[in-house]
UniProtKB/TrEMBL annotation:
It comes from the Bacteria. It comes from Romboutsia ilealis. The chain crosses the membrane at residues 12-28. Keywords: Coiled coil, Membrane, Transmembrane, Transmembrane helix. This is Division initiation protein. Pfam families: DUF881 (PF05949). The lineage of its organism: Bacteria, Bacillati, Bacillota, Clostridia, Peptostreptococcales. InterPro entries: DUF881. Belongs to the UPF0749 family. Residues 43-77 form a coiled coil.
Amino acid sequence: MNKRKKYINHKMVVLCAFILGILIVIYIKTLDPNKVYITLEEKKNLEYEIDIENKQIEKLRKIKSEYQKDLEIYEQKFSNEKSVRELMEYELSYLKDITGESKVKGEGIIITIKDSENELKENQNPNELIVHDIDILRIVNDLKKAGATAISINEERILTLSKIKCSGATIKVNDTTYGQPFIIKAIGNLETLKASVLSPESYASILQEIYGIYIKVDEENDIIINSFKKYE
């Protein structure tokens, strides 16, 4: 009896989560894509978070510079100690990866996103059939939560402070404008990344099922994501 009750409760939780996801997507789609609705408190919180992230990035860059100097010292003093040099090179490579300074290669997924080809229904808002910046942002955030180590949109490397904004039928990423299709590359655990996009309660699945937004997911073993353009 208890097992049956637990099973029913589990199903109810999944159903509620799915319905909540649909309601969130419907609400987002009714908003004007050229406006962002936030409270003053939310604005202050965002500014605070951005300031923290800026400080963190600056801190990482200083650490990277210190490691570079340490590596040169180690190589001079311990030229025969291969293990020490390899360790320092690994740490330096890791720092370059997370700050976007180096090209990253690994397994992951490639997501292709385009506007819906469904016919506009009577009294339907045409914005519901269009891909907006908030849609891309939500999918990118889902990938980050799934542990993606590197992400790009139309070959543009995405970092913590990257800007993604609507610009008519196009989307501006890091001040560069791109048209459809929008190609998102993500490197990380293949199965986890796929689940973040293909699971029934995911934002991408709801966009696809409710609004007919075109979303295609391909698996790749050797995805290459270039460094942030500033460092190229």
